[in-house]
Design goal:
Helix content: 40-55%
Number of strands: 0
Strand content: under 5%
Order of helices and strands: HHHHHHHHHHHHHHHHHHHH
Largest sheet: none
Radius of gyration: 25 Å
Shape: elongated
Length: about 400
């Protein structure tokens, strides 16, 4: 590994421009260079002329006959650029066009089946190492070339580098691809994301879920698969998010609180709705009331439910709260007891808001903090009125 992280490079640390950043098509010398790049396909790093590289190995690496992760990533990026650039009259490198954005343009160009692009994105996100990622990228750049879609190869270089770094960096890249692919930040009104075309698709998933929809079972399975994954890293969930994200989050894959909360709630809904024809989202049924109804149903031990509910109330942050809720929703599902997932989303967002902030904001529409939410749940659960199950 190199001593300089991808983050420092992307923040503007001084470096020599990469080959694709200075490439100008139109002469025989440029054509020879592009042809030379294509000779590196399926070959080990170091097979390309060193004059085309900008990443240099250390003396120790050269003496040991090894290459850095950055050098290997540049090798792959150069060969992909060579494949992409073949026969093109303008450079195919375009700063700011991330992989997800390019694939969104490819999906909407009419030359490639949208389902085929979806599957290719699934394969890219699921690549286990840089070699597998490169294997999936090669046919993609050929399709981009045929559709005259350009790509930011500097960003792609850092995407490739991330596959040899720690898991959080890898996850961040996949999240960025998904947000760009759906354009959740609405950065391009002229070319909306393929899953956000009509106002009817704006409500959160639990409000528009229909058991008889053709993809309902697959969508719920994708949500359940997200239970142990970071938000935005399961391709099957990309088109289900409706959280507000910033252009910065979409570009970099940084995880914002709104997306993280929606992911938690979607996972809970996926676990709750699994195997049920009846809708498990019920407006107006808060968490405390749902648990009181569960207790009144006689399903399971009331004492065990009291302990579980106590653990929920004493959660120190939203992460712990989500973990306890994941243990609760299967019990609600068994009793066919629905829950207001819109209200739960609002409560989860408020759980990590310090109480002093809610006091300072004040007003009727000020967000509730943890103390207020905890009190509301507790009152509903321990109400003297015995709620009817259902």
């Amino acid at each position: 590994m190199t001593g300089t992280s991808s983050t420092s490079h992307e923040r503007g640390a001084r470096r020599r421009p990469y080959f694709w950043e200075t490439f100008t098509p139109g002469d025989s010398y440029a054509a020879r260079n592009v042809a030379a790049l294509r000779t590196g396909v399926d070959r080990e790093p170091g097979a390309l002329p060193m004059a085309l590289h900008r990443v240099r190995g250390t003396e120790a690496e050269e003496a040991a006959g090894t290459v850095s992760a950055a050098f290997a990533a540049e090798h792959v990026a150069l060969t992909l650029f060579g494949v992409h650039q073949q026969g093109q009259t303008r450079t195919v490198h375009q700063s700011g066009v991330g992989l997800g954005t390019a694939c969104r343009a490819l999906r909407g160009c009419g030359q490639v089946s949208p389902i085929a692009v979806d599957r290719r994105m699934d394969a890219l996100a699921g690549a286990l190492d840089q070699g597998e990622l490169a294997h999936h990228l090669r046919p993609l750049v050929q399709q981009l070339r045929g559709a005259a879609v350009r790509l930011d190869y500097t960003r792609l270089f850092f995407d490739l580098l991330a596959w040899q770094q720690a898991e959080p960096e890898h996850e961040r890249r996949v999240r960025a691809w998904g947000l760009q692919y759906t354009d959740l930040a609405r950065t391009d009104p002229a070319a909306p994301g393929p899953f956000l075309r009509t106002p009817d698709e704006k409500p959160p998933y639990w409000e528009r879920y229909t058991p008889v929809a053709p993809r309902a079972a697959a969508e719920l399975a994708a949500l359940r698969a997200g239970a142990d994954r970071a938000a935005g890293t399961v391709p099957g969930t990309w088109n289900l998010y409706r959280a507000e994200v910033s252009p910065y989050e979409q570009t970099t894959g940084a995880l914002g609180s709104r997306l993280a909360t929606e992911h938690t709630v979607l996972v809970l809904f996926g676990l709750h709705q699994h195997g049920r024809r009846k809708a498990m989202h019920a407006p107006g049924v808060g968490l405390g009331e749902a648990c009181a109804r569960l207790r009144a149903s006689g399903r399971g031990s009331a004492e065990a439910l009291e302990r579980r509910f106590g653990n929920i109330l004493t959660s120190v942050d939203g992460h712990e709260l989500g973990r306890h809720l994941r243990g609760l929703v299967p019990l609600l599902r068994t009793a066919d007891q629905p829950l207001d997932y819109g209200r739960l989303q609002s409560d989860l967002r408020g759980w990590d808001i310090p109480d002093e902030r809610t006091a300072i904001r004040g007003g009727q529409n000020a967000p509730a903090g943890r103390t207020a939410i905890r009190s509301r749940w507790d009152r509903a659960f321990h109400s003297t009125r015995t709620p009817s199950p259902g």
